[in-house]
Amino acid sequence: MDERRRGQRYRSLRSGKIVFNFKRSVIDCLIRNVSETGVCLQVNGTAGIPNTFDLLIDGEEGAKPCRIVWRTDSRIGIEFRDQINANPRRPAALVQDAAAESQHAGSGPFRGEMIALRAALDVVPIGIVLLDGDMRARFINRAFRKMWRLPDAMAESNPPFTALMYHGRDTRAYAIPSGDLDAYVAARVAHIKSGDPRPLDLRLTSGEVIRMQATELPNGGRLLSYTYVTDIVSHADELERLRAALDNSKQGVVLLDPMLNVEFMNRAVRELWGVPDEMVERKAPFIELVTDACRTGAFKVPAEDIAKFVASRIAIARAGEPTPTDIPHRDGRIIRVQCSALPNGGRMFTYAEVTDLIDRADQFEELAAIDGLTGVYNRRQFNALAQAEWGRFQRYHRSLSVLLIDIDRFKDVNDRHGHDAGDRAIAHVAQLCRQAKRSTDILARVGGDEFILLLPETNIVQARLVAERLHETVLQTPLRDEDRRESIPLTVSIGIAEAKLSMPNHEAAIKLADEALYRAKAKGRDCIAVADAASTAVHHAAE
Question: Which helix H or strand E contains 479, and what residues bound it?
């Protein structure tokens, strides 16, 4: 490639991608001023970009390993790492060397280089201070002077670094108590002298935050950079407050990145799952956490169902399915889990204990289905169960019969022994009916002193045998009145009917049994009446 074509190539504006975090993080950028050793990149924001990364340039094969030399809010200067050994002189070293040479050459190329470098550093928005080995300022750019309201006369007098620090006291720039200033200055000086490259965030009384970073120079001097990071620190502070709030929440919270790796897990979830600290710190994949929680028994999932359970949780995470799921914990608690899709493509899972809610719901459901006096089903629940049984009857053509049971002369019991005795009589008959039925039979109280018993897999002949046994049991088991030390004899009348496929619904069979019961009571009560679709016969218990 000739020099003319190469110059056109490197002057053109091109697109590229910054790649880091094991290729899991990608940031788009515009490429400016490409050379053989480095490049200037334009980005939406430099926050979060590490000091080393790989650069993909559109139209070129392979990634270039890079290292950041300088950065502003929207641009970064990088050096290709494969050129570092070939040209080890870093920009910071160049600044120091140029300054040293300028002291020995009043004119010539070194002075010209220093003047050009000073002019460039004076227009960048980053504050720059160049210290010599004695910690005196050899160069202070305009941005730093503006940040700290430093007069030009002082900046150009090569002041000691401590003088710059105490100037902050005079201008009341530092957001620290005045009594702590000496300790604050001493700590800052020690930090810079140690050559520690870690950045420090300086909070000002104005509310602004400036990030200072020191670079050690070969002759023992330091290059200090100062950048406004107020927005970044504010966001970090807000995030830290949010993390602290979530950590104190009783509801568990897990945040996943778009690759379903755990970005954050609060204390409640860590305790719920028994997650080790190392797994939290390395931001393990969500699938690993769920699998580990199953294997350690945090989730009450049988060993043979673990793979299926884990797959279902991952499917929910990928789809962002918001429907809540109730999962039993090993200690008996019920944990309600819900997934929410986040704008950045990540997921948020919440974990809340709902044991009491589930228990209360079960209690309410039971109260809605059970008669309070007798403990058997009420009419509403009977109709729901009978409807389901009717569907099986029509599908499989198996026998189905129904008994209607009525306590004889119940009003006399109330009148002679009181309403409390009447209630006990109802509960007494209900208990005898419960003892007489099978587990598959459906018993309900459908009136004041009236019960219904649905008998699946039972024809009319078998139903009559059931009715006769029940009738005899009630007759032979009077109600004991402990207050009066006497027994209250009870009898029942029973109507029986068998369902027919020609009937429209289960209510038709009940109506037929009700008609049979009416006939039994008309015959003097204390008897059983059997009905079918063709004829109705009344059978007294004595027959």
Answer: strand 479-481
Name the pLDDT band for 404 (thresholds 50, 70, 90).
Answer: very high
Q: Which residues lie below 8 Å from residue 414, measured CB to CB, with a gap of 6+?
A: 421, 422
| Distance of alpha carbon 164 from alpha carbon 162, whole angstroms | 5
Q: What architecture is domain 3-83?
A: Beta Barrel (2.40)
b/e map 511-531, b = 16+ CB within 10 Å: bbbbbbbbbbbeeeebbbbbb
Burial tier of 435 (Cβ tally within 10 Å: 0-12, 13-18, 19+):
exposed
Two domains, one topology: 91-233 and 370-540: no
CATH, domain 91-233, list 3.40.50.1000, 3.30.450.20, 3.40.50.620, 2.160.20.10: 3.30.450.20
User: For residues 54 and 20, what is the distance between their CA atoms, to the nearest angstrom?
Assistant: 6
pTM over 0.90: no
pLDDT tens by residue, 443-482:
999 888 999 999 999 999 999 999 999 999 999 999 987 6
Boundaries of every domain in the chain: 3-83, 91-233, 249-356, 370-540
CATH superfamily of 370-540: Reverse transcriptase/Diguanylate cyclase domain (3.30.70.270)
What pLDDT is recorded for position 408? Answer: 92
Question: Is the C-alpha dihedral spanning 360, 449, 474, 464 positive or negative?
Answer: negative
The packing angle between helices 109-123 and 91-104, to 10°, is 130
* Superfamily designation of domain 249-356: PAS domain (3.30.450.20)
Residues in Cβ contact with 122 at an 8 Å cutoff, skipping those fewer than 6 apart? 141, 142, 143
Question: Which of these ranges, 355-359, 426-430, 440-444, has the smallest mean pLDDT?
Answer: 355-359
Instruction: Report how far Cα 287 is from the mean position of its chain's Cα atoms.
Output: 14
The pLDDT tens digits for 317-331 are: 999 888 888 888 777
Phi-psi region of 297 (alpha: psi -120 to 50; beta: other; left: phi over 0): left
Q: What pLDDT does 7 receive?
A: 46
Residue 445 confidence (pLDDT): 92
